[in-house]
Amino acid sequence: MDLFDGEDHGARVALSDGAWVLRGFARDPAEAVLAEIAGIASAAAPRHLLVPGGKRMSVAMTNAGSLGWVSDTRGYRYEACDPQSGQPWPEIGPTMMSLARAAADSAGYAQFAPDACLCNFYEPGARMSLHRDFDEGDLSAPIVSISLGLPATFLWGGHARADRARRIRLAHGDVVVWGGASRLVYHGVAPLADGEHPATGRMRYNLTFRKAR
Ligand code: MD6
Ligand code: FE
């Protein structure tokens, strides 16, 4: 067993109403998913987007699917083409797609049909401040989030930004599924601790599958 193996592989942990952590759910197909991420990154390079306030995000992002989430000084939105290339975003890989659907199913969200996959690339020190995801057109669909590589501390807050956030460790292969009453919960990621992961080196990857339209 390596250092990054969770002892709770296979556990399903309830975070709050409608939100689950599926421990290790993505571990077996991780290698195939990482290959798909590499393909996406070579077609649409990860970049550090500007937020409307003008700051540059520490997480690098790209997208797959018929819509991709983008941010610039004009705001946040979904777009069908990569503004950097003018080309459509690459397709969501078949392994990651079936994994996202299986995770949604196992958390009680049948028939999940995501059209957008936001791909987040974390180097040591990268973080994501507390936010809610409400740019999606269909808030009745859940979000499925797959974490690969270095472990992160996920911040799970409440419905108000000031609500105290719980700290939840997300390791290689962990999947979070949330929707329903928890769909608009505040959440974030603490600065990534440095380390070396056997599958990804000094990187954490996070994929979030959404129904944007
Ligand atoms: C991350 N995840 O884990 C950031 N958002 O790197 C998110 O912001 C997120 O995991 C919506 C739903 C699930 C998530
Ligand atoms: Fe989010």
List keywords for this structure.
alpha+beta, Jelly Rolls, 4-stranded antiparallel beta sheet, 2 helices, 13 strands, binds N-[(3-hydroxypyridin-2-yl)carbonyl]glycine
What does this structure look like?
It is a single chain. With 213 residues, the chain is of the alpha+beta class. It has a single domain, classed as Jelly Rolls (Sandwich), CATH 2.60.120.590. The protein has two helices and 13 strands; from the N terminus they run ββαβββαββββββββ. The strands form three sheets. Strands 1-2-11-8-13-6-3 form a seven-stranded antiparallel beta sheet, with helices on one face. The longest helix has 14 residues, at 30-43. N-[(3-hydroxypyridin-2-yl)carbonyl]glycine (MD6) is lined by residues 120, 128, 133, 143, 145, 154, 176, 187, 189, 206, 208.
In order across it, which strands form the biggest sheet?
1-2-11-8-13-6-3
C-alpha termini separation: 42 Å
Kindly state the percentage of residues in helix: 10-25%
> CATH superfamily, called what?
Alpha-ketoglutarate-dependent dioxygenase AlkB-like
Overall average pLDDT: 95
Strand segment tally: 13
Structural class: alpha+beta
What binds here, in terms of ligands, is: N-[(3-hydroxypyridin-2-yl)carbonyl]glycine, fe (iii) ion
CATH class: Mainly Beta
Task: Tell me the number of structural domains.
Answer: 1
Shape summary: globular
Oligomer: single chain
Quote the CATH topology.
Jelly Rolls
Number of helices: 2
| Rg computed from alpha carbons, rounded to a whole number of angstroms | 16 Å
Describe the largest sheet: 7 strands, antiparallel
CATH architecture: Sandwich
Q: Strand percentage, roughly? A: 25-35%
